[in-house]
Amino acid sequence: MRFFAKFFFIICGFSFVIFFVVLMSDEDVDYVEDIDPLVKYILLYEVPSWMNHPKLDPPDGKCIVTTDKNYLPKIEMFDAVLFSGQHWWMVEWSFPRIRSPHQFYVFVNLECPLLTFHTFAMDPRKELYNLTMTYRRDSDIYWPYGFISDRNLTYLSSADEPNWREPVFDDQIDPELQEKIRRKNKTAAWFVSNCNGKSNRIELVRSMQKTIDVDIYGKCGPLECTWTDHDRNDKCYRLVEQNYFFYFSFENSLCRDYITEKVFNIMSYDVVPVVYGGANYSQHLPPHSYIDANDFATATDLAKYLKSLTRNQKAYVKYFWWKKYYKTVVSRRLYNNLCNKLHDLSSANEEGKPTRRSSHTDIKSWWMKNQCTDSHNIRFD
């Protein structure tokens, strides 16, 4: 009996503390003095820390992005509130208590469903979201890890059916590129830290290693590329560019539209990416700019093809034709598309405050259903 009495007092005390914090939360707070009706205010309510970075903010001042819940007098005054699908520990009591009719709750996620299924085990939010902002092309706000643009920075790979140029193969090889290729002396490199990916990419590489040499860097292999935070990508990718013909951009999960920075980072260098994932790569990358593992019947067939290209410079160099017309852009201004979307929605009525409409009555179903697979075309042998 004494145990239950003690437990009761602990619960009461904890509840009082929570009540007191909530009661006092609106006092002694420095709010923004002037609320500009032409600006959209975006609150990062529960997102990974890296999403709160000045370089990600819209550059033109049309939107203000903050993690400060007290930036405005009330949370319901924000035009959009962002919640990360990766934060499974968010439970119902932690959500804002009041929500205005014009306010948008945005589901944000860059990880794939197979890595975030736990989000919905405790999460009651399935009917709360109005907008989605993910790597998926059917999101309300498309947020890819990167994209291919033409030289005028026209956003080409965002369209459902991008109008890519037909490959143009010049007989004359650029002397600088020719010299780079001449110096390459290793077949393939792979940087990987997750050794248990659901795509079975480790098994694919092991099968290929029966035919070609694949140098594995990171936790899953014997090699390392050391770096500082400042030169991480450039130093290691330069190492690959100087020595290797191919880089393996193998995803940890086979999910629709799931193409991570592994692809876009390496395409900025003179190395041919070998891709393996669940996306339709032809919607994201120019033709003959990559080699898709799933275009081959077996791992041995793929390995033999790569080996043949290392011995045929004329055939190998054709994979760089696209660089004359396109460039790789790794996503930077994260909130540009969201900002533009909010302003577009504001034109819904005269007050510039759109009536909130729910576009997702079941976010769990939208996010999880028929998105990922464990099947692949290529056979491991």
Automatic annotation (TrEMBL):
Residues 182-357 form the Fucosyltransferase C-terminal domain. InterPro entries: Glyco_tran_10_C, Glyco_tran_10_N, Glyco_trans_10, GT10-like_C_sf. Pathway: Protein modification; protein glycosylation. Signal peptide: none annotated. Coiled coil: none annotated. It is an enzyme of class 2 (transferase). GO terms for cellular component: Golgi cisterna membrane. It is a single-pass type II membrane protein. Pfam families: Glyco_tran_10_N, Glyco_transf_10. Its main location: Golgi. The keyword Transferase applies. Its EC number is 2.4.1.-. It is found in: Golgi apparatus, Golgi stack membrane. The keyword Zinc-finger does not apply. The chain crosses the membrane at residues 7-25. Residues 60-146 form the Fucosyltransferase N-terminal domain. One of its GO terms (molecular function) is fucosyltransferase activity. It comes from the Eukaryota. Keywords: Glycoprotein, Glycosyltransferase, Golgi apparatus, Membrane, Signal-anchor, Transferase, Transmembrane, Transmembrane helix. Belongs to the glycosyltransferase 10 family. PANTHER family: ALPHA-(1,3)-FUCOSYLTRANSFERASE C-RELATED. This is Fucosyltransferase. It comes from Lutzomyia longipalpis.
